[in-house]
Specification:
The chain is of the alpha+beta class and 113 residues long. It has one domain. Helix content is 20%, strand content 30%. It has two helices and five strands; from the N terminus they run αββββαβ. It has a five-stranded antiparallel sheet, covered by helices on one side. The model has no long low-confidence stretch (mean pLDDT 86).
């Protein structure tokens, strides 16, 4: 069996000309972990996002992936996620800094040139 590449293991990759538009995280939820939402803007102007749980062990489980045609649609998605997390767990997504790395482990800028 072939070992997966770092690119295949990444939650989200940023290609040339793309930029991170946001990262949001909940506080730790007992026996669940932390919900996170990451979004980027592709070169074609479409927003791509991933919503996932990071377990206390460090493992990550993808909840949903998708695209938003514009910033307004991305904001609607973010508000829906916040509302659902608040209703179910009593927590909400808050803006967060994202740790960005290149495939060789170096820190990466928020916009890839």
């Amino acid at each position: 069996m072939k070992k997966p590449s770092l690119r295949e293991l990444a939650i989200m990759t940023i290609d040339e000309g793309e930029e991170i538009v946001g990262a949001w995280i909940t506080p730790y939820i007992k026996e669940v972990g932390m919900y996170k939402l990451l979004a980027k803007k592709r070169v074609d102007g479409v927003y791509e996002w991933v919503h996932f749980i990071q377990r206390l062990s460090g493992g990550k489980e993808i909840v949903l992936r998708g695209e938003a045609r514009d910033e307004a649609q991305l904001n609607s998605l973010l508000e829906a996620a916040k509302d659902n997390l608040s209703r179910i767990f009593g927590v909400t997504l808050q803006p967060a800094d994202a740790d960005l790395y290149t495939l060789d482990g170096r820190g990466a800028p928020p916009k890839v040139q």
